[in-house]
Amino acid sequence: MAKNGPEGLITALDIGSSKVSALIAQKGDGGELVVLGTGQRESRGVQRGYIADMHATEVAVREAVEQAERIAGTNIEDVWVSFSAGGLVSDIVRLEVDLGGHRVDQSDIDDLLRAGRDAINPGGRMVLHAQPTRYTLDGLAGVKQPRGLHAERLGVDIHVVSTEGAPVRNLDLCVRSAHLEVKSIIAAPVATGLACLSEEERELGVALVEIGAGVTNVSVYKDGVLTGLSSIPAGSADITDDIASAFGTRRGQAERMKCFYGSANMTPRDNHDMIDVAPANPEDESEGARITRAQLIAVIRLRLDRLMADIGKELARLNFEDPVGRQIVLTGGGAELKGIADYAQQALGRSVRVGRPRGLTALPDAHAGPAFATLAGLATFAAADPVDLRTLEPSRGQLVVRSNPKAMLQRMMAAFRANY
């Protein structure tokens, strides 16, 4: 029988278009995250990252969490939830205060962060993250801890991620309907980056491409900060649908064909390897078709060609254009397709690797692949518990020079009141 969990438990909940997965972890004595239990259920109520069927999604959430609780031998009450739908916007807000040359103390930093809270103008969107990233001293960027140093001016870069409010509220309502408290809703690219990218990669500059079932998120990091992100309403489920349509079979069979026989690359032998295709109608007693593996791969590559073209356009739009020394990391369930890293490297003209979750102890092999990177990243994010400016009280009249003067007159309205 499950018992109430000890203090310090972290539960991550990733609600995607193809699966709902849960993970319960606890900090070890050395600060490491130890996985106590995991759970997974098929997602039936989510389309392109958006909640389309509240009841079906609620049932999947309940079952995934209950499975993780049984394995962990404990009950949980609150969860950290991912949001992976399109419409996410990443921005950097920069501001400074005049110190007059004195030594920076904690009150100066607190005043600056409170002023930063007031400077954020989401334009009616809901803010998911508002986190200080780097400080500046007299224009010198990249200062991680300014306290104790002398400066004429102290500045900060604030990373803001926002989105449309309604889909987030639907997600929140769905989780709470499953009798779970929502600690916070985290943008999936932020969590995935923590799980798959090293600090040095984020510093040097890297693009993270998460190929989910219904959505592909493209994120660009530079100087340690997520500088831009975009979403493409296509993913690995579209490949499955193409296979089902092309060969007249059921989605479940098409998914199996993709996973067991599919590849992003073709070899001469694929023209001779045969695959049996079950008919779409399970009551059809006739023998199904037989296709070559080359025919299957040809259908897969047609969809991949379009997806990679869209990814290339988004990378260019996010100013990730210089191929020298710029790596792309593929993750998400779509990154488990055989040969996709080599294919993407040729299609995008850059070095490509597959990103898998790291940093968690006792993570089961079944949840250690790229499809579960967001889930692991949620636990890592929760353990770090970064500063969020939305929890601060408003500032009281600090003289602030902002990159956008109009922001001085704006205040966070519905987004902060909704506490997202």
UniProtKB/TrEMBL annotation:
<comment type="function">
    <text>Cell division protein that is involved in the assembly of the Z ring. May serve as a membrane anchor for the Z ring.</text>
</comment>
<protein>
    <recommendedName>
        <fullName>Cell division protein FtsA</fullName>
    </recommendedName>
</protein>
<dbReference type="Pfam" id="PF02491">
    <property type="entry name" value="SHS2_FTSA"/>
</dbReference>
<keyword id="KW-0472">Membrane</keyword>
<feature type="domain" description="SHS2">
    <location>
        <begin position="10"/>
        <end position="196"/>
    </location>
</feature>
<dbReference type="GO" id="GO:0009898">
    <property type="term" value="C:cytoplasmic side of plasma membrane"/>
</dbReference>
<keyword id="KW-0132">Cell division</keyword>
<dbReference type="Pfam" id="PF14450">
    <property type="entry name" value="FtsA"/>
</dbReference>
<dbReference type="GO" id="GO:0032153">
    <property type="term" value="C:cell division site"/>
</dbReference>
<comment type="similarity">
    <text>Belongs to the FtsA/MreB family.</text>
</comment>
<dbReference type="InterPro" id="IPR020823">
    <property type="entry name" value="Cell_div_FtsA"/>
</dbReference>
<dbReference type="GO" id="GO:0043093">
    <property type="term" value="P:FtsZ-dependent cytokinesis"/>
</dbReference>
<keyword id="KW-1003">Cell membrane</keyword>
<dbReference type="InterPro" id="IPR003494">
    <property type="entry name" value="SHS2_FtsA"/>
</dbReference>
<dbReference type="InterPro" id="IPR043129">
    <property type="entry name" value="ATPase_NBD"/>
</dbReference>
<dbReference type="InterPro" id="IPR050696">
    <property type="entry name" value="FtsA/MreB"/>
</dbReference>
<keyword id="KW-0131">Cell cycle</keyword>
<comment type="subunit">
    <text>Self-interacts. Interacts with FtsZ.</text>
</comment>
